[in-house]
Design goal:
Layout lengths: L19 H17 L6 H28 L11 H4 L1 H16 L1 H4 L3 H5 L5 H33 L5 H31 L4 H28 L3 H7 L4 H13 L11 H32 L1
Length: 292
């Protein structure tokens, strides 16, 4: 005689609250933003993002201290120039964290698990892109805010004009974050191994900067300043700087700036194309990974 029994454990349909698409999108965004700073991960994952964040703050704090003692306006770093001055640190942060967000799920083949639930492919991409954009924005906007607030506390002259410059610099930080996150995510998404992803993002940054720098140097030597300015469209930091200078009234911090308002509009259109194009590429990439 068998001693087996069948138990009625009373399976029931879920009748509770369903939070919907907005909750899913917000949860994915928060999860990826935490991952960008190593939160919820081992201690070694937190070292690099927080170390780079601290390094980003040091020049701003030093600049405010120098202004407090000297009262010389030039002692304060220009708000719109800060991201360009610290572009190496920003690029390292992008290179180390973009693979965490863009390639980790691909590497471990867990993308299909996300899409086995009611998660839209576009929501998945937007949440990741927004998280990396927010992380980069915090990296750049916080030091700029320290400069502005520190200047106000230490009796900075022309506070009204400084406010306009500060707000313009924040718009520039948003553009920097959008463009850099778009480029970094696309490069990292096609390099499943994290080490290769870090190297690939750094290579894109260094090669574009080196090639554009060489072209601009040759153009300047031949007094062809038009070519020197337009060449800046092909490296991300110079590209956004063109928008800041031509459309937001900032002072140039790059070797060459595309001429006139036309140059600014072309640069802004190229920024938009990079962002939208990256979303399309990432959508196809993660959709394909979800089917494999």
């Amino acid at each position: 005689m068998s001693t087996s029994t069948i138990h009625d454990i009373g399976y029931r349909h879920y009748e509770g609250r369903r939070n919907g698409r907005g909750y899913v999108l917000r949860s994915l965004y928060v999860h990826n933003l935490r991952a960008a700073f190593g939160l919820g991960r081992p201690a070694r994952a937190k070292v690099m993002p927080f170390l780079l964040s601290a390094i980003m703050l040091l020049p701003a704090a030093g600049s405010v201290a120098a202004f407090a003692f000297s009262k010389e306006p030039d002692a304060l770093i220009r708000y719109a120039s800060y991201a360009n001055i610290m572009q190496v640190i920003v690029a390292i942060f992008l290179a180390t964290q973009a693979p965490v967000l863009a390639s980790r799920e691909v590497r471990f083949h867990v993308i299909p698990l996300y899409f086995s639930r009611p998660v839209d492919h576009l929501d998945f991409v937007l949440a990741k892109a927004a998280a990396l954009t927010t992380a980069l924005l915090a990296m750049m906007a916080v030091p700029v805010t320290v400069l502005y607030v520190g200047g106000l506390i230490t009796k900075m002259p022309d506070s009204g004009e400084q406010l306009l410059r500060y707000l313009g610099a924040l718009v520039g930080c948003v553009l920097f974050a959008l463009v850099l996150a778009a480029i970094g995510m696309v490069v990292a998404a096609f390099t499943p191994r994290r080490g290769f992803g870090v190297a690939a993002v750094i290579a894109v940054y260094m090669i574009s900067a080196a090639v554009v720098g060489a072209v601009q140097g040759i153009a300047e030597a031949n007094t062809n300043f038009t070519v020197q300015g337009w060449a800046g469209l092909f490296t991300p930091f110079n590209l956004v700087d063109i928008v800041q200078v031509r459309l937001l009234g900032a002072q140039s911090s790059s070797a060459g700036i595309a001429p006139g308002v036309t140059g600014g509009l072309v640069a802004l259109a190229l920024c938009a194309l990079i962002v939208v194009g990256s979303i399309a590429v990432l959508y196809r990439r993660f959709r394909k990974a979800g089917l494999s």
